[in-house]
Amino acid sequence: MNTCTPEIVVTGLGLVTPLGVGVESSWSALCQGKSGVGPITRFDTAGFKTTIAAEVKDFNAEDFMSKKEARKAERFIAYIIAASKMALDDAGLVIDSDNAERVGVFTGCGLGGLQTMEESRDVIVNRGPGRVSPFFIPMLIGNMGPGLIAIHFGAKGPNCSVATACAAGTHSVGESMRILQHGQADAMITGGVESVITPLCIAGFNSMKALSTRNEEPEKASRPFDKERDGFVVGEGAGILILETREHAEKRGARIYATLAGYGMSGDAYHMTAPSPEGEGMARCMKSAVEDAGLPLEAIDYINAHGTSTQFNDLCETQAVKSLFGEHAYKLAISSTKSMTGHLLGGAGGVESVFTALTVYHDLIPPTINQESPDPECDLDYVPNQARKQVVNAAMNNSFGFGGTNASVIMKKFKA
């Protein structure tokens, strides 16, 4: 990384997850090894192979927006506005006429308003095209995430959304870092969101044989790196970070969680859904992030793994870590928080970047739960079943998406 570029720091965090609404509740449950997976309540699952998911519970959109706004907001929009409000409040960042053009928004989302699409199709079939809501398109498109965040909070700086599948949230965090480094903003609201626990989503992933069917034991269904893993569990929620240049943060006396030090991305150019053999593309992505951070490989203490609980992903990610880090791979602490939150798809990278910042800040590594049957091919330290108190000076967050799109970010301990 060019040493003349400004240091980028994390000053605010916001979470809406299957483990809780708010950073404190989500982080506490995560470190206690609690699972957010349970029976699907959103629709009748009769006839579905998978009847479980990681749903957000006890969320009230009107706690974060007006009743009128809440009535029009698709679930993913409500989640990301809520997480953004929490993050801004946590950062103590007030957007006003003096700084509005220097605060931007960049978020990721995989599928957007899939629920609205399904419901509107039913309206056409049963009631005719004239009864489709005029809010259908605005409720559907993923870029309404950053668009409505900007409108809601008055952020007039750079505004963008990416739809890079399961890497979308992490790509957004990395690209926000670049915007700040290039001087195009002083602060960015960034992260990811997803809410697609719908019949079409579950049926589609079932057809791919990608989901766990451990319906009788939902809390044990997501088991990354475990020999008995049988697929991932769909989750939902939003994770938002406030990033600022160090100069801007210190000038206003902000509390700093971590330094965002590196960002890497790569393409597998291999297959629509399967990772490249032995995680070759994943390894190049991680290598790029470490080099961007200007750190030796041995400086990385922890990896928040993509760790989806599928056979191919977990094996290939393990192989990628080994090929890149060599002997140091066996000294790394690695965990998949998806074992508790499920897989938030386009929102995963945002939520897991928040978790990574908290890991560095608190020197507390969340576990990979459901580590009951060691897989001989996945033989690294996955922090099994219990959180670990350990100094974490530098940590990586990985996100790898369908289409072979990969993203990694590096966070390190802030030094005043």
UniProtKB/TrEMBL annotation:
Pfam families, per this entry?
ketoacyl-synt, Ketoacyl-synt_C
Report which superkingdom the organism of origin falls in: Bacteria
Q: Which residues form the Ketosynthase family 3 (KS3) domain?
A: 5-413
EC class of the enzyme, as a word = transferase
Record keywords, A-Z: Acyltransferase, Fatty acid biosynthesis, Fatty acid metabolism, Lipid biosynthesis, Lipid metabolism, Transferase
Q: Which GO terms describe its molecular function?
A: 3-oxoacyl-[acyl-carrier-protein] synthase activity
Write out the catalytic residues in the record. 166
Q: What is its EC number?
A: 2.3.1.179
From its record, what is one biological process in GO terms? fatty acid biosynthetic process
- Please list the reactions this protein catalyses: a fatty acyl-[ACP] + malonyl-[ACP] + H(+) = a 3-oxoacyl-[ACP] + holo-[ACP] + CO2; (9Z)-hexadecenoyl-[ACP] + malonyl-[ACP] + H(+) = 3-oxo-(11Z)-octadecenoyl-[ACP] + holo-[ACP] + CO2
Instruction: Kindly tell me the pathway this chain contributes to.
Output: Lipid metabolism; fatty acid biosynthesis
- What do the Gene Ontology cellular component annotations say? cytosol
Asked if the Swiss-Prot or TrEMBL record annotates the protein with the keyword Lipid metabolism, the reply is: yes
| InterPro entries in alphabetical order | 3-oxoacyl-ACP_synth-2 (IPR017568), Beta-ketoacyl_synthase (IPR000794), Ketoacyl_synth_AS (IPR018201), Ketoacyl_synth_C (IPR014031), Ketoacyl_synth_N (IPR014030), PKS_Beta-ketoAc_synthase_dom (IPR020841), Thiolase-like (IPR016039)
Q: Which PANTHER family match?
A: 3-OXOACYL-[ACYL-CARRIER-PROTEIN] SYNTHASE, MITOCHONDRIAL, POLYKETIDE SYNTHASE-RELATED
Give the family per the record: Belongs to the thiolase-like superfamily. Beta-ketoacyl-ACP synthases family.
Q: What does this protein do?
A: Involved in the type II fatty acid elongation cycle. Catalyzes the elongation of a wide range of acyl-ACP by the addition of two carbons from malonyl-ACP to an acyl acceptor. Can efficiently catalyze the conversion of palmitoleoyl-ACP (cis-hexadec-9-enoyl-ACP) to cis-vaccenoyl-ACP (cis-octadec-11-enoyl-ACP), an essential step in the thermal regulation of fatty acid composition.
The protein, known as: 3-oxoacyl-[acyl-carrier-protein] synthase 2
